[in-house]
Amino acid sequence: MNGAIGGDLLLNCTDMSVLERQRAHLKYFNPSFDSPLAGFFADSSMINGGEMDGFLATAGLNLPMIYGETTVEVDPRMSIPLETTLGTGNFKKRKFDTVTKDCNEKKKMMNREEVTEGEEEEKSKITELNNGSPKSIKKMKIKAKKEENNCSNDSSKVTKELEKTDYIHVRARRGQATDSHSIAERVRREKISERMKFLQDLVPGCDKITGKAGMLDEIINYVQSLQRQIEFLSMKLAVVNPRPDFDMDDIFAKEVVSTPMTVVPSPEMVHSGYSHEMVNSGYSNEMVNSGYVHFNPMQQVETSSDPLSCFNVRHIYSFIMFHHLI
Amino acid sequence: MERQIINKKKRVFSLEPNKNPSAVFTRKYTSHLVPALKKLNMNKNSSKQTVKHEVDMALALSAQEFPWSRFLLQKLSSSSNPTTTTSSSSDGIRILERPDKEGGNEEGGIEERLRELKKLLPGGEEMNVEEMLSEIGNYIKCLELQTIALKSIVQDST
């Protein structure tokens, strides 16, 4: 009999969540249930004394007490009918949890006057939904939320971001507008800053600099210095003609053999912590790794006025080969 | 470790040649450039311009996955005496003067720098900003590898 008494107590308790109550209902009537929702709808009529208002057991509970801050009773009702159409077979505990969670979120968002017109739309959407398939339900729900966003053009309170396959729905952060233009603008800005971060790691000596302007300056300087180096080298190449027996294999082999000692893995070489996405390119992380290594010594070179004099190519080249061999 | 390296001197190219992209690029680059230089050397007219041309051409050919290389190729093939991708001296001076100008509007400064960056990248002016930023990353990588290759070639020849 403990079950019955317990159930009774549960039923009278008003500070439980909807879910818990409904589970309690079920337990009360059907002690051997395991799936919380399988027999749910079947039993709902019993709970209400035969009064089937289409909203399951919730009509009999003190819903406004749960969502205490608002007077919007419509909240839970809006989501529960979604459940009815989902079919008992597919029901999983989790879905219901997400619904209640969504209820909570919607409740938060609904603390405004503009909400009423949004509600109307959602209600109409929901009634449409009842005829729709289960798969489209989530989509429609998202659509409804999006329209709600569009209705309330002022900044909403803080909630999480919501992403779906068809739409990207972004809940506005505090103090930010929600119209599509600014959202697109924000996405664009984020993309740009993402790439800037990648560039920051690419260009040596950029990690200390904060701010877009300084970093862009650094990048510009670096690219220019690289180009100048190349020009200088090609000029030198024009003066120094390659030997007739210039053989590539010779270069590679020679470098490796002559400098066995220099091929000691420096700490930078060992790390493979880079995981930047390199957009638009077929190059993978290895590119970044090896490039980074090579350019540590070169960093010193660039600060000196004569890039070639104090620079040991073999040193660098053997690094390439070492990386090759690994 | 030494012994391993000495033992491996016979096989200096990795067994999976396409695994390491920077090595792939370097190999391609040198394989393009060296024969071209040899040919130039034969012809005895290795002026600075032609060498630079060959250098740039080798770069463009070795990095064909990237949009900027296509632009570079176009520019190179359109004129035999191309304006170099680096207008180095003038830009250098301009960069030095910049710190005075940039004091004012941060936002305007960024726009200006982005435009500057676009000029540096071959074909950058036709791209939008996001694309340009990612391409700059590739370009920097390839430039670095190019300098390595050039240095080793020069070193070896002297």
Automatic annotation (TrEMBL), chain A:
Residues covered by the BHLH domain: 176-226
GO CC aspect terms: nucleus
InterPro entries: bHLH_dom, bHLH_ZIP_TF
Keyword field: DNA-binding, Nucleus, Transcription, Transcription regulation
Subcellular location: Nucleus
Major place of residence: nucleus
UniProt xrefs under Pfam families: HLH
Signal peptide (residue range): none
GO molecular function terms noted in the UniProt entry: DNA binding; DNA-binding transcription factor activity; protein dimerization activity
Region of interest: Disordered: 111-137
Entry protein name: Helix-loop-helix DNA-binding domain superfamily
UniProtKB/TrEMBL annotation, chain B:
InterPro entries named among the record's database cross-references: bHLH_AtIBH1-like (IPR044549), IBH1-like (IPR044660), IBH1_N (IPR059002)
Any GO BP: regulation of DNA-templated transcription
The protein's name in its UniProt record: IBH1-like N-terminal domain-containing protein
Main location (coarse class): nucleus
Residue segments, region Disordered: 77-110
Transcription regulation listed as a keyword: yes
Compositionally biased intervals (Basic and acidic residues): 94-110
Pfam family, one: IBH1_N
Keyword hit for Transcription: yes
